Amino acid sequence: MASTPGALTKVGTIAVPLLALVVLALTWKRDLPGPVVVLVALCLMGAVLAAVHHAEVIAHKVGEPFGSLVLAVAVTVIEVALIVTLMADGGAKSSSLARDTVFAAVMITCNGIVGLALLVGAWRAGVANFNTEGTVAAVATVATLATLSLVLPTFTTSKPGPEFTGAQLTFAAVVSLAVYLLFVAMQTIRHREYFLPVTRDGEVLDEEAHAHPPTTAETGLSVGLLLVALVAVVGNTKGISPTIESGVEAAGLPQAFVGVVIALLVLLPETLAATRSARRDRVQISLNLAHGSAIASIGLTIPAIAVASIWMDGPLVLGLGATHMVMLALTVVVSILTVVTGRATLLQGGLHTVLFASFVFLAISP
């Protein structure tokens, strides 16, 4: 499972994250000319490939679903730090950045990554097989967290606009974190077997228990390099974010599209890892990554934003507009119908891919 990405050698998986971190340190909070932006972008892509490799080494050591959880949580924690930093630096224009980025993460994971994984898995095996119990539970968790945190603020009346009051935001933060921890406990302890890959006959595959794992030293090195790679990914994304914002503004696109681009970049490691798992006919691992990232994105971002709002000035817009609520509702319905049988064809993968394309198109042309 811990195979090295084709674009990077074994030495490259060590050197590239360190190089990306050095570039981040040299360019932090500086105005970057065009050639430097290109260099930063290349380092970002290399760090993404390295992050996928090291996440797979760790996953091989600890087994599923712990491996998927490691990558999802690591990316989300640093993503939250990026959102808070950009909101602190952006002033009033960033009041909806948390909402835009979190909603984009949900659409990318639940439609983009899921759709791609199902297309790859069904194309190779005819039908993509996964565990119904765990996947349905994950979809239900995403739907609950997204509704409580992103839909309700549009309809609450204690404060004008799509915002929570302080008490409401505190409640949403506590509930989001509690639901996230409950899901993780079920995924890793109580019902771990629900999140393991299955065969076409429905037999659970706990193949990590029989594969030869990497040594403790190799795993420790990968843990450190994974963190370095993810810091480099998110930090360099922030470094080129002014270029992204300028490009979005020059193209006449909505400001909310910045959140979409940031989420796409930050979620690249999960996207590549999910695709590689689907190619191995381990679609359940792909779904663990996708839904786990969506759950972590909401369950960890909302509490962090609630704490950060104590010292940040300006409004905090969390409520979705009508178009995005329709997209979220359609995503939930299609996701349930996709996972309830434990089997998916190219059709289901195509539907999720179309929903993702629709989200991107509407973000460009609302």
From TrEMBL:
Keyword entries, A-Z: Membrane, Transmembrane, Transmembrane helix
Domain Sodium/calcium exchanger membrane region: 37-188, 222-364
Signal peptide start-end: none
Protein's cellular compartments: Membrane
Membrane topology: Multi-pass membrane protein
One Gene Ontology molecular-function label: sodium:proton antiporter activity
One GO CC annotation: plasma membrane
Domain of life: Bacteria
Segments crossing the lipid bilayer: 7-28, 34-54, 66-87, 102-123, 135-155, 167-186, 219-236, 256-275, 287-311, 317-339, 346-364
Pfam families assigned: Na_Ca_ex
Protein name (Swiss-Prot/TrEMBL): Ionic transporter y4hA
